[in-house]
């Protein structure tokens, strides 16, 4: 099981610790570092900055939002950064949800998310393969565009730049069972949002069809501390925001995922409190048991014991949301 460092996206502004953490992760032998985006900082610019200040560590987006760019624009960014970094790029993509797609990007959320995702990946594969001009008779991403408002002058094109790698890894952040199954078929890896090493049976049948080299790379908060309850507070804060606020009351993929983990009543209660403006109560309502099973929090000995559970499953890469260099070092020592 390889280690990665997940830095997420910015809050109010750039986090001055991120470069130091990425460089420390590289020094410790971490395989990868990952950036993200929501509706503030983008994923690719910080990753390019990290690429310029490191030499070996692989670079990934976990995740870049598909609604933010056309698939050809995303492919251009990926192939550009792959060249500049000497072949270190990994492209993690996510569809997001209706609130972000329609509220932030001003685009309709696809009625068939599976089809939209499949077409998006297919266009990227064609760009990176550069075997022929991009053509796709698609519902969401047709190339050339031939809709009712088209000029009819669209010309199939292939990239001027020769991609460094036609097989640049493409990973997908998928949550629903059908989406995960499609990810196994069309992508090079899966980026689970939450992962519980004690519930691997939820994905056993789906992942049985994964080909050799398929990455399973969940993100998890890791924190070395003496007080477990105190260490779980940032995990609960993240869960409260995602489950309560990252989606509509009637359509929240994160709450649905928590429900599949066996916490349906608790997920709905968190939503109810958060949407009522009672955010502190929503965070407190996140069960400690759920926060604990999807994270690695506590003294070194406790993390070492729990890490063995993570090793026994299908995980290939553990992407640690680690807040400090000490935690990075402890995790590297335990994983080594």
UniProtKB/TrEMBL annotation:
Name assigned to this protein: LLM class F420-dependent oxidoreductase
Q: Which UniProt keywords apply?
A: Oxidoreductase
Q: Where is the Luciferase-like domain?
A: 17-313
What SUPFAM superfamilies does the entry give?
Bacterial luciferase-like (SSF51679)
Q: Which organism is it from?
A: Streptomyces yatensis
* InterPro entries per UniProt: F420-G6PD/mer, F420_OxRdatse_Rv3520c_pred, Luciferase-like_dom, Luciferase-like_sf
